Amino acid sequence: MPSAPLLLARSIPSIARVSPTLAGDLAYRLFFTTSPRMPVRTPDAPTHADARRGSLRVRGAEITTYVWGTGPRTALLLHGWRGRTSPFAPLVRELVAERFRVVSFDAPAHGSSRGRRTDIRDWIDAAEQLHTTHGPFDLIVGHSFGALAALTIARAGVPTPAVVTIAGAASPDAFLAQFARDLDLDDRTAARLAERFRRRLDLDETTVSARYDAVAHPLPEGTRLLVVHDRDDRRMPDDSSLLLHAAHGARSRLLRTDGLGHARILSADPTLDAVVALATGGFDAVDGLGTTAGDETSTATRPPGVRVPG
Q1: pLDDT tens digits for 39-64?
Q2: Considering the entire predicted model, what is its pTM?
Q3: Residues paired with residue 139 on neighbouring β-strands, in sequence order
Q4: Which domain holds residue 245?
Q5: Confidence (pLDDT) at 294
Q6: Has residue 289 been placed in a domain?
Q7: Mind telling me which SUPFAM superfamilies this protein's record contains (predicted)?
Q8: Nearest Cα to Cα of residue 145 among 232, 34, 66, 61
């Protein structure tokens, strides 16, 4: 039997023919749905269990935090919407092996954290608190929605020399637009969804852009960017990532993969290699992995599953 969110999604286009406003309100409700919660996958369970756990209070919700390693450098990892920290397990192991301390959290209504509702402000609040207790961060990595949070955090409040976005987007508009395409929303319904989104954050179009759009308002001059995206990503096509890379010119490197999609790219060898290279050797190390610099449009990638020797 189809789940309630799936039934709601299927009904919205029909409702829109009668009332785009009601359909937009229902789409807004579905957009912020976080259930079902992602379980911990068996391959990730040992690393997940090995974390030193703590807690933070974020806008009234108690969330679970994680720390691995004791190295002199620190990385912050940010999971995506309807995700959790545990799929970062392969990257956690790589970074700890390179003497990084790795810090992360499950956002409210995600993973092991409490709460029933959340939005990007909770990612930002949690990151700022962790920056106070565990920072400064030498690296911030975000996957999917967590990539948008990573960009936002690095632009205001949590300075870092390096940001990695994986299967992400440069602004909320990209997530809203893809959601509208997934649900086949008409223009009026999509506009209502965007209006409700901005109202939730108590922002207008201009202030949403200033706060959350990393193409119109790039990262600080001293921050390097690595953009990782798969050409076959159906959940979040790479259009926004390509714009993000171009907006940062020589301060950005782009790694495009093939056949990894939206989720598998997070633990794939090309991604792990590129993130570790940036963390340990900067752009000089990343440039040897088939990335693209500056405003170039052509890219070269290694086949999935191929690691750099050593």
Answers
A1: 999 999 999 999 999 999 999 899 99
A2: 0.92
A3: 75
A4: 47-169+220-293
A5: 62
A6: yes
A7: alpha/beta-Hydrolases
A8: 34
- Same domain, yes or no: 145 and 196: no
* Same domain for 57 and 5: no
CB proximity list for 251: less than 8 A, separation 6 or greater: 219, 221, 223, 224, 225
- Residue 252: CATH number of its domain: 3.40.50.1820
Q: Can you give the pLDDT at residue 8?
A: 82
Candidates 25, 22, 153, 164; CA nearest to 88 is: 164
- Tell me what pLDDT residue 3 has: 61
Residue 289: predicted pLDDT: 84
How many separate domains does the chain show?
2
Structure tokens at 113: 């954290």
Q: DSSP alpha helices (H): ranges in 156-253?
A: 172-183, 187-200, 205-212, 239-247
* Per-residue b or e along 8-36, where b marks 16 or more CB atoms closer than 10 Å to that residue's CB: bbeebeebbeeebbebbbbbbebbeebee
Q: Which residues of the chain have pLDDT under 70?
A: 1-4, 294-310
Q: Residue 131 is which amino acid?
A: H
Q: Of 166, 142, 145, 143, whose CA–CA distance to 154 is shortest?
A: 142
